[in-house]
């Protein structure tokens, strides 16, 4: 979650197009790339990070290339319509197809592929394993 935001609430906006920025491997040797569009919550990103760390036995280096900076609001259950916009429930990162979510270096290809397979199960969108070639 961000330390400070200019505005408490944001509109949903649209999520058209493909990722231009953050679509290439910059830091590591292997990456987990989004093949679909959607929102990744901070909890999902953290769960995937833990899965990768567990699989690699904290070997190598992991880079997280996304940050959840979009406030998502949610009204309580069984609330009547109206009475304004709800309070911020959680934060999410906007993901477009082609966006690199994680990068890893210092591990073998098989280990990276296995770790990213476990991590991709934590996300609600399809992911792809890519390598620097």
TrEMBL record:
High-level lineage: Bacteria, Katanobacteria
Family stated for the protein in its record: Belongs to the universal ribosomal protein uL16 family.
One Pfam entry name: Ribosomal_L16
Superkingdom of the source species: Bacteria
Entry's Gene Ontology molecular function annotations: rRNA binding; structural constituent of ribosome; tRNA binding
GO BP annotation list: translation
InterPro entries linked to this entry: Ribosomal_uL16, Ribosomal_uL16_bact-type, Ribosomal_uL16_CS, Ribosomal_uL16_dom, Ribosomal_uL16_sf
Transmembrane helix in keyword set: no
Protein name as it appears in the record: Large ribosomal subunit protein uL16
PANTHER family, alphabetized: 50S/60S RIBOSOMAL PROTEIN L16 (PTHR12220), LARGE RIBOSOMAL SUBUNIT PROTEIN UL16M (PTHR12220:SF13)
Purpose of the protein: Binds 23S rRNA and is also seen to make contacts with the A and possibly P site tRNAs.
Keywords noted in UniProt: Ribonucleoprotein, Ribosomal protein, RNA-binding, rRNA-binding, tRNA-binding
Subunit record text: Part of the 50S ribosomal subunit.
SUPFAM superfamilies: Ribosomal protein L16p/L10e
One cellular-component annotation, GO: cytosolic large ribosomal subunit
């Amino acid at each position: 979650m961000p330390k400070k935001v200019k505005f408490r609430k944001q509109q949903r906006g649209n999520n058209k197009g493909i990722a231009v920025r953050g679509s290439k491997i910059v830091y590591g040797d292997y990456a987990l790339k989004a093949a679909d569009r959607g929102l990744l919550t901070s909890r999902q990103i953290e769960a995937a990070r833990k899965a990768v760390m567990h699989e690699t036995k904290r070997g190598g280096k992991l880079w997280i290339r996304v940050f959840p900076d979009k406030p998502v609001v949610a009204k309580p259950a069984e609330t009547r319509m109206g009475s304004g916009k709800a309070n911020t429930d959680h934060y999410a990162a906007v993901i477009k197809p082609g966006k690199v979510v994680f990068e890893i270096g210092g591990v073998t290809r098989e280990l990276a592929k296995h770790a990213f397979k476990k991590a991709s199960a934590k996300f609600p969108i399809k992911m792809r394993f890519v390598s620097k070639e």
